[in-house]
Amino acid sequence: MKVRKEGRQVKKKPADKEKNKIFKVVLAGERVFSNAKEAFTLYDSSRLGEPKEGKVYYSLVETLYLLEKGKLQVYKGKKKVTSNMFLKEAQLLENNFHTRFIVFRDMRNRGYIVKTALKFGADFRVYERGVKPGQEHAKWILYPVFESTSLTWHEFAAKNRVAHSTRKKLLIAIVDDENDVTYYEVAWRRP
């Protein structure tokens, strides 16, 4: 694109098309993946997804987040999947999906890197702002809970024990009816 400036033509630099290009991901059962170059570029800049065996795999919450941001298109076979269709499918595949997604989106929008934490027995692990997985360990183990959900003291103690044994702080995220999130950080204290 050329623009006239004081009688002469100036060539404008094109926007970085690679960064904004929408790419295709495939939904196969509970797995979402892509082998597009843009998926690897996005991983390098944001740590969304998990590269493995020549593909980038996305959790269901990561996929919906990127779908809402207009970064990707989801296909199930040859059929394009809308965000509403994907949300319905994800809710069937994962318990507590909506609450988990609200918390994931809120944390990502606040600038934190959020990854799954199944091997720790938690929903998510959260890295301090500016820290990428592999550089340092996650700071928190995060449990999303809807405000009307009850939690026994034994369940609460178990969650705190998991965080303590993995040398992380426990973060409880409570989602209300308006999808606002309140965070509580819990730590062990010796009297």
Keywords:
five-stranded mixed sheet; 191 residues; 31% helix; globular; 6 helices; six-stranded mixed sheet; Trna Endonuclease, Chain: A, domain 1; 2 domains; alpha+beta; MutS, DNA mismatch repair protein, domain I; disordered N terminus
Low-confidence stretches: 1-5, 12-18
Number of strands: 13
Number of helices: 6
Strand arrangement, largest sheet? Answer: 5-6-4-3-7-8
Overall pLDDT: 87
What pattern of helices and strands is seen along the backbone? EEHEEHEEHEEHHEEEHEE
Compute the CA-based radius of gyration. Answer: 20 Å
* Fraction of residues in helix: 25-40%
Relative strand content:
25-35%
The CATH architecture name of the largest domain reads 3-Layer(aba) Sandwich
Largest sheet: 6 strands, mixed
Taking the alpha carbons of the first and last residues, their distance comes to 68 Å
The computed structural class is: alpha+beta
CATH C-level name of the largest domain: Alpha Beta
Report the principal-axis shape. Answer: globular
**Count of domain modules:** 2
CATH topology of the largest domain: Trna Endonuclease, Chain: A, domain 1
What is the gist of this entry?
The protein has six helices and 13 strands. The chain is an alpha+beta fold. A hairpin with a 7-residue loop joins strand 9 and strand 10.
Q: How is the topology of this model organized?
A:
Elements: E1 2-5, E2 8-11, H1 17-20, E3 23-28, E4 31-34, H2 37-46, E5 50-52, E6 55-58, H3 60-68, E7 72-76, E8 79-81, H4 83-93, H5 97-109, E9 113-116, E10 124-127, E11 140-146, H6 153-165, E12 169-175, E13 181-186
Parallel strand pairs: 3-7, 11-12
Antiparallel strand pairs: 1-2, 3-4, 4-6, 5-6, 7-8, 9-10, 10-11, 12-13
Helix pairs in contact: 3-4, 3-5
